[in-house]
Protein: Deoxyribodipyrimidine photo-lyase
Amino acid sequence: MTSPSIVWLRDDLRLADNPALRAALDRDEPVVVLYVLDEVSPGIRPLGGAAKWWLHGSLASLGERLREKGGELVLRRGPATRVVADVVEDAGAGAVFWNRRYGAAEREVDGGLKETLRGDGIEVASFAASVLFEPWTVRTGSGGPYSVFTPFWKACQALPAPRAPLPEPRDVPGPGSSPASDALDDWGLLPTVPDWAEGLRETWEPGEPAARARLRGFLSDDLDDYDRARDEPAAGATSQLSPRLRWGELSPYTVWHETVAARESGANPGAASRFLSEIGWREFAAHVLFHHPDLATKNLRAEFDAFPWPRLEPSHLEAWQQGRTGVPLVDAGMRELWRTGIMHNRVRMVTASYLIKNLMIDWRRGEEWFWDTLVDADGASNPFNWQWVAGSGADAAPYFRVFNPELQAQKFDPRGSYVREWAPDHAAGDGPEPLVDLKASRAAALRAYEEVKQAAR
Structure:
């Protein structure tokens, strides 16, 4: 009598380089591939709207690919601890495999389930698949976590090189009768009334095949210019891989090794190294989240709890969200975000700085908006980067830095191409009036940061 294996997928929606899937196939038993939409377990953060849109597309693609290989994707919704146990019983499974997660609530769920299943005699194993260097393996000389990127990344590079990616399996044999599955459309992940996702559909094709195609295109066509043009939002020099990595349609091991191979084959070595360091920044975010699980809600640097946030002006927050601040580069970025679910990284820094340090709105309000509107909204990178801009997080020196959006536009969008594309009213001289004076609001922000500095003494 067979005892199928269950592969519980989460942020690893791929067949290639999936260690949990490989472990299941190595048992030479039928495989049940399971995805659980869990937004109810304690501490699990519900997905934002743009993320739900991406998840729908990625699951649809994965389900089709599994059927081509003889398998089936089982969809269930609810608290993962109960749902996975139910599927184990329904399938008569003898083993459950998954790839590890690093948020505190996720680790709590995974650890509890592992203990329960093993107590019932089920084989359970978890694997490293979403980061190159697991957070507890990178330690300072005193044994603690890192708070500055450069020494963190240097320590990572001193560790054994990331393992080679695993090949995609030829077949994923399912059981004769799969456990019952929800219908993907019944989950309501796609917006309907109103349908605001037209721009997302025009911009993206979720799924592993499109992810692999984009990686190949980036390495062959865009990598050589990455270090020179990556900060220019109109240049199209970025990888556009962040949602692919966030949803695990690509593994970081694949990105790492194929980038190294491109460098060894003659690609611009400086550009390749700079791109790999951006993968390192993603690793650093996961490292910080692991050691500071309340990163999305609590200042990493406790002295910033004394920051004198003024009373929230809702009309200012709404104007920022809608790209109506009167600042061309900020408004262009916010409109790009709403239309496409993505924003150029340089512009992300500028729009975040403007919200925090010119409008004097708590960074958590901006983090929440990005969480809802970014297709690559990640539980580590999103709050980590917001805290970096705010000055309250890791590697945030100089914490009092204020990005001047006009100077940033002159430097990185000197011909106004990005602003013309996303905020043509500004380019035509018809944009909204500025909400605040940049010089005066900068001075007010610096006074507030000085209060924090004085309070910490």
Observations:
- The chain has a mean pLDDT of 96.
- The radius of gyration is 23 Å.
- The chain has three domains: 5-129, 131-163+208-291, 302-456.
- The chain has 20 helices and five strands.
